[in-house]
Amino acid sequence: MLRPKRSRWPLASAVLLLLAAAAVYQGILLRAKLEIGGAEPQPAVTGRVQNLHQRAMQQYCTGLVRTPRNTWLVGRLEDAHDITPQPEGSVQLDTLVYGGKRAAQAPPEDWGTPWNAWHRKPEQTTYVSRLAEDGIFHEVARLNGTGCLLATPDGSTLYLLTDLERPQASEAKPALEQTAVLRSDDQGQSWQWLESGWLPQVNWQAWSMRPQFHGDREVWAWRDFEFGEEQAAPTQGSPSGLFYSPDLGRTVESVAASAPLLKTLDDLRGKAPADADWGDINGRHGRIRAHVVQYGPDQAVLWISQTFMYGPPGGPHLDTSISVSTRAELRRSAGRWDMALPEHMEGFAVTELQANSAGRTIAVLQRDGQPLPRVAEWNSTGRTWVDYGPLPSPFHPLASSSGLRDFRVGDKVLLANTMSSYQVPRWLSPVRDSSISANAVFYSSDWGASWHKLAIDGYLGVLGFEPSTGRVHWAQGNWYNSRDLQIHSYDLEPGGKP
User: Fold this and answer.
1) Which InterPro entries did the record assign (predicted)?
2) pTM of the prediction?
3) CA distance 136 to 139
4) What whole-number distance in Å separates Cα of residue 469 and Cα of residue 71?
């Protein structure tokens, strides 16, 4: 009796399914790594630069700033690459500080050693350009150094926070350590060096300050603690580290702490195993992030987050976090800000926090034990966070970790520039741990519940964002890998028009 032949279809089907799954898996990794695809909502051209150096982006203090009066573009690159002549009418800002000739700085005796040659700070050139009616960004100022452009909300005043060391003080003038700050009140046509500094109590490195405006004249700034600083956490009546100016820095108020604001490493050791390795990265207060938001003429809130890291004894990494966030309400009375008693909340750090024009406070929270930061909104009535979901990842739906290069809160949309990492399964990399990294730009129209990827380079691709209109400005690659002279934009608001 003849037996029927066994069908090979189930085996073939299994092989085809396996091959299809492998193709989908590889496709996800390739699309993420190569930044393939992305939405292009209502594309438009913002303007055109005259040379690529004007839009040379770096990881800080570069990009586009739009004010009610003008649109500004700041680029920066190393002097070794700078072969463009300075156009007529562009102000050489160094001369305002050094009187026509930059002060010569004697190199240390061991300048020629390999260590100093490797670690010395590279010279930078900063370009400040303004968009004219002809649609072209024209250079208005140039700086031999790092410069961060800051504009008041109404656009009437510009500040350039630089790394230029001030000239040596004379005996008649007391020394002031803060690096140079320049100001323009005529839309970049002329600049003046603020010899008395600008918020010098906050940071001697002017370019590293991150002041926040409320209205057109009020300014807040937080004084970062130096790494390893051994001062005690702010106690009742002592300076909190928060500064306020009602008049663009002409007068500055140091806000006093109402109670201890910071936890110390000793306060939190007991929450980790007794043999935990804390390394030396935590210092006394861990990693500190501070955010302040003013909601009205007499109401503001300060958020301070601290993150402490530990690992197993003898382990290669400090991979476990213990976080505490402190919230303190501020009220203005009799011309001064008073701080209410702070509230300490454990288990999460506020890595980003911004409020839009409607007063909605959106934050990115890193909760202890969770790989993905989450987007949440502060509910002032219930005094709790409303969780909307995790940060997006280009590796989705594969499990991955994500961090932020940039995060912006608009009136109707959120913008997130992420850097993500996918851990390759052990069976694919049996010899050693391997991971794949990728950058991407996403936007959300529902406060972080869902995200859409944009066709923008995830690394240095975003030049600027307008919170009120939801328009993001970007460039096609950076100056060294793209010859495109145009600055582009997308309109992210639903139903928006270019």
Assistant:
1) Sialidase_sf (IPR036278)
2) 0.89
3) 10
4) 14
